[in-house]
Design goal:
Alpha-D-Glucose-1,6-Bisphosphate, Chain A, domain 4; about 200 residues
């Protein structure tokens, strides 16, 4: 998998797969195009942002508005400092981010694609996310994998404490994202087959 080139070793990972009743091409298109806005995901991110938003309100600053659409095809424009690491069209998309994700502001560190692998600055975590498809019978297996690797022992200890708090929420987000992509791909398949107007 392409993700293995960018984060072959890691501290934490989470994988979720689903069987999709659609072709790999339709499923891959859905990965890039599906609007990932979801009330449960929004609630979990609002919970994560609560201390920061309270502080903004106390300072009389506006709370940042959420974008109306969030897609993997446009995530680089929506932060936190995402970069496309690799893509094999129709097979796998890998995006990455570097930051101190345990901080209120995520501690984002902008990095270009060629600098992701060699990045070693102490105190950071590197996150790689892979979304991939493979044919399975008459359908597709959709796989979402997130890997995180820290750059030193201090960051590792801090990230592990943070992961204990957010790990369950990450699982919920990933499952809901996969379900949204699956539903979009299957609906597209039904339209293509003429089963839906």
């Amino acid at each position: 998998m392409l993700i293995d080139r960018y984060l072959p070793t890691f501290d934490e990972t989470y994988i979720y797969e689903a069987s999709v009743k659609a072709t790999p091409d339709e499923t891959y298109a859905a990965i890039r195009e599906t609007n990932l806005k979801d009330p449960v995901i929004d609630f979990l991110f609002d919970l994560r942002e609560l201390p920061r938003n309270v502080a903004r309100r106390l300072r009389g600053e506006p709370v940042a508005a959420r974008p109306p659409r969030v897609t993997f095809g446009q995530i680089m424009q929506q932060g936190p400092e995402w970069v496309v690491l690799a893509e094999e069209a129709g097979v796998e998309l890998v995006i990455g981010s570097i930051g101190r994700f345990w901080r209120k502001d995520y501690g984002s560190h902008k990095v270009a694609q060629p600098d992701f692998i060699p990045f070693r600055e102490p105190g950071y975590a590197k996150l790689a996310i892979s979304l991939s498809v493979r044919a399975a019978g008459e359908g597709t297996i959709l796989r979402y994998e997130a890997r995180t690797a820290t750059t030193d022992e201090t960051a590792q200890r801090t990230f592990r404490r943070y992961w204990r708090i957010i790990g369950a929420g990450v699982g919920i987000v990933m499952r809901r994202v996969v379900r949204r992509i699956k539903a979009a791909a299957e609906q597209k398949e039904l339209h293509a087959a003429g089963a839906l107007p």
